[in-house]
Specification:
This protein has three helices and no strands. It is an all-alpha fold and about 130 residues long. It has a domain of about 30 residues.
Length: about 130
């Protein structure tokens, strides 16, 4: 069953590793940038440096938050597609098993109940007609 899922609905270990590697590379680049910025900021006053660092930290936090939200939405979308695919496969499997076992369906049971109720009413009518005739 797992092989029937579309390739796009799976998250492979290779994709996760590539994502982690990209994050590591970007993190290293950011650390290098912070190092260079720190050297530049040494010449400024402490207040300006702290203000700039806080601003950078906020921007970085917002960027990370946006990426995390986008990733979560992507994973949720994939999860929904996988669940829908599994439900569809399970439905087809159950239908196949029921057909092979030659079991009655719920609709067939309802139909039989209606027919039995109708026959019972007719029998009651016939019995009432015989009692009147006798």
């Amino acid at each position: 069953m797992a092989e029937a899922m579309p390739r796009s609905a799976r998250i492979s270990l290779k994709d996760v590793r590539a994502s982690v590697k990209r994050m590591q590379t970007e993190g290293e680049r950011l650390v290098g940038r912070i190092r260079r910025d720190a050297q530049t900021l040494i010449s400024r006053t402490r207040r300006e440096a702290v203000t700039d660092l806080l601003g950078d930290a906020r921007k970085f936090e917002q960027a990370i938050r946006k990426r995390a939200e986008k990733t979560i939405q992507d994973i949720e979308g994939r999860r929904a597609r996988i669940i829908a695919s599994l439900e569809e496969q399970a439905t087809r499997l159950v239908e196949t098993v029921v057909k092979r076992l030659n079991l009655v369906t719920e609709d067939e049971v309802k139909d039989l109940r209606k027919r039995i109720a109708h026959l019972e009413r007719r029998l009651d009518q016939l019995a009432a007609g015989k009692e009147k005739a006798a």
